[in-house]
Specification:
537 residues; 9-stranded mixed beta sheet; AMP-bd_C_sf; Rossmann fold; GMP Synthetase, Chain A, domain 3; 2,3-dihydroxybenzoate--[aryl-carrier protein] ligase; AMP-bd_C; AMP-dep_synth/lig_dom; 3 domains; binds adenosine monophosphate; ligase; binds 2,3-dihydroxy-benzoic acid
């Protein structure tokens, strides 16, 4: 069985192959190419796995899953935190052609249910230490709604046939990998989204592997790379830009951190002589604060490169990085949908401080459109349009949304407002999509508005971004209510609906009515302005 998805047109696919971007290798090659190496691949607390051990663990789990009846073209819902098991499971599933959705550990019932509804998973792999899986209530719910769900495995469950560690302990005798074809779906990436239901992004082996190799090249990852993965492992950025998969490709070493706090990370950096890590801007600010409070800066002495991306980095903060951290800055502007831009290691400082870099590939086609979709002259600010060898061609089973998100030639409109300079470097000026970027964590306004509307006291709701010194943006829900309702009550309500914590509005503002634009849509520009004026006064 093949998973249906929007393919690249034949002529482009042929071109991407001819130019060597698509090499028709499965993503599992990232690991199997080092299968005989006893170099350390992964450090997770006290646990260290070399490449051979990592590959064998994936083989053993893959063999067990095959015995449990899984087959090529099946799908999986996975939720694991920053632990070695995340990668073992990822490679195991890919080795047998099962395509996972890797939910973030911060996701709750609402998000997981949404993903499960879309892929109808055959296997669930989750963590007993996650709130949702301490008992079987939610698992039973999933089984009810997902008729194909036949295998449930749990990390942090030591006994029984649903113990992940037991399944990974069986020998893999006679196992031979059967990944899906390289131009088929390898797994689904998560979109930050701007619509009511979070969309899934089919990523093929060919396109994703190319984005990883291209990234490794640009960032010069090699066997001496020691990368701290402090952002959520499932996120596209620390997974593939070049991220942990880039490190594995290059035979370097991944050190896992449970969170990006200075308290967690500084010790790990010193202990394992980490030389590169990937952060979002708020984490950079917190690290700088921590360094100021700390007379001894030697803990970061091994750091050579600090990648910053996921949200806007102010030029001022950017310019302070080299001196404060004693290392180089690289800006990364990427998206789970594909296109990733990097400042290059030998770019001059001005460019590194003030732009978000340029695309990985010479065959990334990037241009700027006006509101009607027509190209704008060079240097103008407008909508980012792109297609290329690792940019998807359609969200999973979302024909209506795809009709809006792509133009007739298959260019994806990311919803970002950018300008492109004559050398092809992109600067992000803002956003058109209805999304809040809360320090790199994306919130689709409509998703939260729809949930608020189901509360009996709420007549109408609009979620907008409000400026925040640390996070860049936080969220404010403007509401029209039938009766007074306290923010704590609304947050409790959203939590009970199973929404991830980072999506809960940071502030609620009751209004008698919502301002409307000339065409009768909620005027969010005016709402944002109102917040700015209020903050200024
Ligand atoms: P997602 O769809 O969740 O993968 O998020 C991708 C979006 O994050 C982009 O379309 C941008 O809006 C935002 N983003 C990522 N990196 C940067 C960056 N370096 N500067 C500004 N915005 C960014
Ligand atoms: O924000 C993102 O989604 C992102 C940022 C940097 C991304 O997907 C990436 C690099 O690959």
């Amino acid at each position: 069985m093949k998973i249906p998805f929007t393919r690249w047109p034949e002529d482009l696919a042929a071109r991407y192959r001819a130019l060597g971007y698509w090499q028709d290798l499965p993503l599992t090659d990232i690991l199997t190419r080092h299968a005989d190496s006893d170099r350390i691949a992964l450090i997770d607390g006290d646990q260290q796995l070399n490449y051979r051990q990592l590959n064998q663990a994936a083989d053993r789990l893959a063999a067990s899953l095959l015995r449990r009846g899984l087959a090529v073209g099946d799908t999986a819902l996975v939720q694991l935190g920053n632990q070695a098991e995340f990668y073992i499971v990822f490679f195991a599933l890919l080795k047998i052609g099962v395509a996972p959705v890797n939910a973030l550990f911060s996701h709750q019932r609402h998000e997981l249910t949404g993903y499960a509804r879309q892929i109808s998973p055959c296997v669930l792999i989750a963590d007993r230490q996650h709130r949702l899986f301490t008992d079987d209530v939610f698992v039973d719910e999933l089984k009810q709604s997902c008729p194909r769900l036949s295998v449930c495995l749990f990390h942090h469950q030591e006994q029984g046939d649903s113990s992940l560690s037991q399944m990974t302990a069986f020998p893999a005798d006679g196992f031979s990998p059967s990944p899906s074809a390289a131009d088929e779906v390898a797994f689904f990436q998560l979109s930050g989204g701007s619509t009511g239901t979070p969309k899934l992004i089919p990523r093929t082996h060919n396109d994703y592997y190319y984005s990883i190799r291209g990234s490794v090249d640009i960032c010069r990852f090699d066997r001496d790379t020691r990368f701290l993965c402090a952002l959520p492992a499932a996120h596209n950025y620390p997974l593939s830009s070049p991220g942990a998969l880039g490190v594995f490709y290059a035979a370097g070493q991944v050190v896992l951190a449970s969170d990006p706090s200075a308290t967690t990370c500084f010790g790990l950096i010193e202990q394992h002589q980490v030389n590169v890590t990937a952060l979002v801007p708020p984490a950079v600010s917190l690290w700088i604060q921590a360094l100021q409070d700390q007379s001894d800066r030697r803990s970061l002495a091994s750091l050579r490169l600090l990648q910053v991306g996921g949200a806007r980095l102010s030029p001022t903060l950017a310019a302070s990085i080299p001196a404060v951290f004693g290392c180089q800055l690289q800006q990364v502007f990427g998206m789970a949908e594909g296109l990733v831009n990097y400042t290059r290691l030998d770019d001059d400082e001005q460019r590194i401080f003030t732009t978000q870099g340029r695309p990985i590939c010479a065959d990334d086609e990037v241009w700027v459109a006006d509101a009607e979709g027509n190209p704008l002259p060079s240097g103008s600010i407008g909508r980012l349009m792109t297609r290329g060898p690792y940019t998807f061609r359609g969200y999973f089973q979302s024909p209506d949304h795809n009709a809006q998100a792509f133009d007739a030639k298959g260019f994806y409109c990311s919803g970002d407002l950018v300008s492109i300079d004559p050398q092809g470097y992109i600067t992000v000026h803002g956003r058109e999509k209805d999304q809040i970027n809360r320090g790199g964590e994306k919130i689709a306004a409509e998703e939260i508005e729809n949930l608020l509307l189901t509360h009996p006291a709420i007549i109408d709701a609009a979620l907008v971004a409000m400026e925040d010194d640390l996070m860049g943006e936080k969220s404010c829900a403007f509401i029209i209510t039938r009766e007074t309702v306290r923010p704590v009550e609304l947050r409790r309500f959203l939590r009970a609906e199973g929404v991830a914590e980072f999506k809960l509005p940071d502030r609620f503002e009751a209004l008698p009515s919502l301002p409307l634009t000339a065409v009768g849509k909620v005027d969010k520009k005016q709402l944002r302005l109102r917040l700015r004026q209020k903050n200024a006064s």
